[in-house]
Structure formats: C-alpha cells, structure tokens
Amino acid sequence: MKEGGGMKKKSSVLNNKSTTMWIYLFVLPTIIIFAVFYLVPIITVFATSFTKWDGFNPVKFIWFGNYIKLFTQPEFLISLKNILLWSILAATVHVGFGVLIAFLLYQKPFGWRFVRSVFMIPNIIAVAAWAVIYRFFFNNDFGVLNNMVRIINPSFDVAWFYESPYAFWAITFTWLFYAVIVTLIVLTDLMAIPTELHEAASIEGASSWQTVLKVDMPLIKNAVGVSMILSMTSRIAMYEAIALTSRGGPGDDTMSIPLILVNAITNMKYGYANAAAVAMILIGIAILFIVQKSFKMNEKNS
Amino acid sequence: MKKTLMFVIILAFLCAGTMLFAGGESENAASGEVVLTIPHYKAGQNVGGKFFLPQVERFNKKYAGTYKLVIEEIPQDSYQGKIKQLAQQNKLPALIEGADKKWFQDVVIENGLFFDMADWFNSHKAVKDRAIQDSLDYITTADGKITSFPLMVARPIGLFYNSTMVNFDKPVNEMTVDGFQKAMGDQKLAFMTAENAWTTSLFFTSIVVEEGGAEMIWAGVKSPVSDYTTGIWVRSFEKLQDFLQNNASANTLGAAYADAANSFMSKNAAVIANGPWMMGDFASGSEDKWSNGFTGDQVTAAMYPGNMAIFNPTGYFWWVPNNISEEEKEAAMAFLEFIKSPEELEAFMLVEGGTAPNLTASSGYRAKLEENRLLNEMDKAVNADTVFVPLVLDVMPPSVASEDFGRLLPKLIDGTYTPLQFGQELSRKAASALE
User: Fold this and answer.
1) ipTM above 0.90, yes or no
2) Which of B3, B33, B276, B342 is deepest in the core (most CB within 10 A)?
3) pLDDT tens for residues B11-44?
4) Of residues B139 and A122, more confidently modeled
5) Distance from the Cα of residue A256 to its chain's centroid
6) Which homologous superfamily is B30-150+315-370 in?
7) Across the A/B interface, how many CB contacts are shorter than 8 Å?
C-alpha cells in the first residue's frame, strides 16, 4: 500500500511538472510577441530618450537633456494642461454619458438594439475621417453649426478651430459624446448582474434609484474604472483629431504631446521625440494607478 | 467533409493568386524591362500631377520594353517624411524629388546615400549645359560630387489678380507694398493659415524684401534663421498683420491652399500669390472650379511690389540613391534626362510657366508662348531689374515652416500677439527646432 501510495505521489509530481511545462509552452508565443513587439520598442524608446539622435548618424548620450528641454517648453506645459482638462472631461462627461446610455439600454426600451447599433456607427468611422467631417461641420463659411446659428444671429462669425478659446472646445466636441466603448463595457457588466439581486432589492422595498446606486453601481465599479482608464489614456494619445483640425493652434492652445513628438520627428530629433513618448507613457501609468486606487479595482467585490 | 473541401478551395485560390503575382514579376524580368516604382505626390488631385503624370506616360511610351516608371500616389505633406523613413530602412526608391536641405546635408551627403552624378554629367555635356549655374554650384560638393539633378527652369513665383475687381493704374512690380495696399482698396488677398500658410508666406516674402530683408533671406537659406525679433522681421510682421486684418479674404482663418484658391476663383479675393503652375486652373477646361462670375480671362499675372519675384535655386531637387542596382540607376538617369530634354522642358514651361536661361527655345515654343496670354504676361513681368529672393519659409527650420508659422498666424490676426511677440514666439520655436 505504502509503495503504491509513493508511486501515485511521484506520478502526481510528474504530472504537475508536465502541466507546468505545457503552460509555459503555450504562454511562450505570447511572451515572445510581447517582448518583440512591445517590450523591446518600449525599452528602446526609454534608452534613446537620453540621447541626441537624428535617426542616421551615431547616437550621442546626453543624459536628461531632452527631458529638461521638454519640461521647460511652454507648448509641453500647455499640453499637460490640456491633457488634465480633457482627462477630467473624459472621466466625468464622456464616461458619465456612456454609463447613462448603458443604463438606458439596460432597461431594454423599444428599439434598444437599433439604438445600440446606431450608437456604434461613429466608432466604425476612422478618427481621421471624423476630424475632416468636423472640420466641415465647424467651418465658418459653410459649416452646419454656424449656418444654424446665423438663422438667429446673422452676424455670427467664429472660426471654431482657429480662434481662442473656441478651438479647445471644438476639439473636445469631436470626442466628448462618442462614448460607445464605455457603454458597451458597462452594459456587458450590467447584463451580467444576477436577476436575483434585483428581485431581492425589490422585496426589500428598494426604489429604482436605490437599486441603481446600491446594487448596480457597486457591481459595475470595475467597468466604470476600466472605461475611465481607456478614455483618459486616449486623450494622452490624441493626435489625428488635433492634427487634422486645429494642428495644435491657434498658437499652442490645443497642443498635445503627440504633436510635439511628430514635430520632433520632422526636425529629426528622435531622442527628443522619444522623451515626449516616455512622458506620455508615464502620464498613462499615473492615470492607471490613480484610477485603480480610486476605484479599488484590485480588490475583490465583497 | 464540407469544411475540408472549403479549406482546399481557399488554399487553391491562395496558391493561384500567389502564382499570378509571381508570374507578373517574372514577366517583367523575362522581358528585360526595368520597372521603377516610386512614391510621389504629383498624382491624383495634386496640381503638379497635371503635367507630371502625362510626362511619365510619355517616358514609358518612349522606353517601352526597356524602362517603366510606376507612380505610387502619396500626399504631398507625407512625402518627405516617407523618404526619411525609407532612408532609415535602406529602402529608398530609385528616384526622389527634393529633400529637406538640412536632412540632405546631414544624412544623405554625410553618409554617401546619393548617386554621384558627376561622371554622368561629364558624359552628357549637353544636359549639363542646360543647368542653371547657381543650382549646379549649390548641389556640387566641395570634392566635386554632384548630389542631385540641377534646376534647368527658373520659375519665378509672383501673384495673380482679378482685373475686374481691382484696377491698378500701373504694373504691380512698379508699386511699393504700401502703394499696392492702397491700390487694393477694400479688396482682399487670398491668404491662408492652414497647412504651411503657403500663399501668406509668398506675399509676406515681398514685405520682408521691401523692409530690406533680401540679403537676410539669402543668408537664411544657407543657415536657418533663429532670431525673428530683429527690426526687419518685426516691421514685416507689423505690415503682414495690417494686411491680414484689413485685406485678408473672409476664410483666411483656417484656410488651406484649396480654400485660398477657391476664394480667388469665386471672386471673394481679388489677389492670390502663387506660382505659374496655377495657370492651369485659369485655362479652359477648369470651369468647374470657377464660381460667382469668375472666368480665367479675368486673371492677370504679375510679380510682387518692389519688382520682386520668388525663386530659390539653392535646393536639392531630383536625386538618385546610391544603393540601387546599376540597371535601376540607368533607368532613373534616363528618366531625368528625358524630363530635362529640350522638348520636355518646353512642354513643361508651356504648362507650368518659367524660363530656361540656358535653353535655346524652339520657334514652336515661342509661337505657343505668344498664344498663352498669362504665360506671356508672367514672362514680361520679369525684367533685368527684378530681384529674385527665396521664400521666407526656406529660412525657417522644417517644423517651423511647415507647422508653427501657420499655427501662430491666427494670434497675429486677432491681435493676441503683437508683431514683436509673434517674432519672439517664432524665435523660440526655431531655437528649439535647431537646438
């Protein structure tokens, strides 16, 4: 019996080793892909951000030179301010609107599937195409918006993307209410809430508002957190919507870090461009950290 | 079973497709025809494509079975960026038109990426003799290497005005900038602030020259300017601000080239600063671009106030990379020789204007020139006293010329920046780009 038991234990250990090996083997392609296509480029970006490099001639190590230059440029400080404002708007209005639509769709009113599909349409169109559409929409001469306003006020004359302070809001309007990703993430979590919880709340005499606040909201907390992370980090990387409309202007009013990065590439300053990229990565990580902490996303639902 | 059958069918299609493509390549190889596929912006809706694409067709027809040039369309704004990326990957196309000067000097010349055309020109003396000497001097290195194909046609850039909207009592080039503005009255210029603010920068050049900045501009093309706060610049910005606030077309804020052109061709602006290539838009066949009573025969060509024209021979034009095969180099040089042949130069000048100082024009060309009123006007607007100056954008670092100048203009227009502040901002951007 003892002998037999020992053999069983040995076989189990072997099985465990074999299983572990297979797990690593299956994960290996993902690790390789991650390392080659993400990790190595990120390390390269970090390393070259400490250099002066025109992309062709030998690399010159300049320590924090690029960062000092970056953080002392007014356009970078304006970019930071813009990112902060856009992030606040993304976390509140953008995500709030997406969550609201998710709750409306969750009630499954008549035609909700159609509304969901229509709400998806802007997401199918490329950002660049949207930017061009908005350039026409906000055009001072023949744009829909100004011509509508001129019905009431014939002398109305605003070049939205090219005048302060309108340019910032015109850029903001290009993404503020397109919250379909938020809606889909939140709606998926709402759909996963067991009906028993709502029934129990109803038996306990909870009102609709109380059910939303005390039952639904805590259960979709992580989905809202993820939505916030996605929408706020999208603001850091926002390029086409600006480059194809205001191009960061007037002056530097709608400047963003990706524009600084592209300008640096135009001037063949790859080290400086990569310092801007590192700044973007660090801001992204900071947002991730803050939202995760605020929403206690790593803690299990009690 | 059905799934297996479907898989086999898809596989068969994939194999057939692959073989079809492979067949195309081998057909070219078997016929001995050297095919050059190059990205270029002079295609599609680009104004330069009107002449360039038919020219490529003529080349392909002439050298059918020997050489063939295939154009891959790319937006003009992306062209230089793509060339830089391809250079990094050691995959430059066989023919490249133009380059950022600094990049060409620091990267292409420094690393010997160009095909030295010196031997080729020595064996093609007739072609070399047609080159504009200033251009040839600029592209020749200290050790005698010829880095790119020199210019053969000088195309002075001036302006066009609608003679039904403004009535100048003397030729524009005989006026001062102030006199021109006075003669304009309430009429508008088709300015731009989007893209690189092209039409604005052209007219601004004439202002800078009148303020005494010609030499400064010539010096700037050799070494980019980083200080825009000197007296000449500030006075010029002040004058520009005056024009932008009082004589700019209504759509100037945010206007791209197409908007400026549309403004002129719809009689919303009486004047547009632009090169002779725009004449195609005023010829019959372009009626679809005209509106509001505009017709091509209302347009008159002129040079700028102060008898000034914009022309810059200091630049790198068509060049051939060094890392391609000998056959490809031969094909590339055959194309360049073709487009710079007397017949093609004349055809080019008849469509896009310009003069070839070292080419003896044929009688046919002269007769056709006489027939073309606008070309003739432009030709006659240039005289022995005309001052040729490069564009102000040529003195700015690339990102300042392509992005910052236009982006800062709205703040000069609305008065947020004084002329001095505008110069200070431009200086800061330039210093940062040159650092």
Assistant:
1) no
2) B276
3) 444 444 444 433 333 345 456 899 999 999 999 8
4) B139
5) 15
6) Periplasmic binding protein-like II (3.40.190.10)
7) 85
